[in-house]
Amino acid sequence: MWIADGWKEYEVIDCSGGEKLERWGDFLLVRPDPQVIWNTEKTHKGWRRPNARYHRSKKGGGEWEFIDLPKQWQIHYKNLTFNLKPFSFKHTGLFPEQAVNWDWFSEKIRTAGRPVKVLNLFAYTGGATLAAAAAGAHVTHVDASKGMVTWAKENAASSGLSDAPIRWLVDDCMKFVEREIRRGNHYDAIIMDPPSYGRGPKGEIWKIEDAIHPLIKRCTEILSDDALFFLINSYTTGLAPSVLTYMLSTELKGRDGHVDAQEIGLPVSANGLVLPCGASGRWESR
Question: What is the CATH architecture of 2-84?
């Protein structure tokens, strides 16, 4: 497992009974987590007095209970600053476990010894975009949600990266890749964080089980000859690390590189365990 253990302002304090108690800067949140199927005694006082709690509904979805939480606040990871706010379905606008991938590819970009063009698909609020840009890459950030791209730009400004070479695009990821193929454009690295289900800006339907492999296949057509890496993240139940390995290995088999895939996770302060938080597959050149 790849563990995101470099945080100073975020931690999973404890987890039990389908929930996790987290510290986001100065604030404690209780949020549901489907991986937490065990029950242990909730002794930390934060369980009883969080700043906010997200309550799941048995009918699906849920709602936030705000006790003492601002509408927006910030946390930092190394030289990056993220603006957080509670919004739909338990989210805050950041997935802290992804920091383990940010560290991995940032080192590859910094030590490449050449300009690096990165394409970030399903780029959300820009965590990977900012990490890549801070490491010196030129980044193309693509997401179907105008609101998410606006939020990512705010994070870039807060991180001192407003003038960084980042191209911000609201677009359907597959359609964008197909246009880039026709234009003859290429990238040295590709990052993608596809949802299980989603819609493009014009209502295009995305189902990961149908669309992920065709997208990977098309993306290999815009990888440069001396590509640096290809990273896929997945939070879809059933899409195991071995599946990510197989897809990357199959589509990149003609290149001189190495594929690895693992669960990614966050350390739990209360018991020293690691909470699994999805999976990542990495291809990197030799």
Answer: Sandwich (2.60)
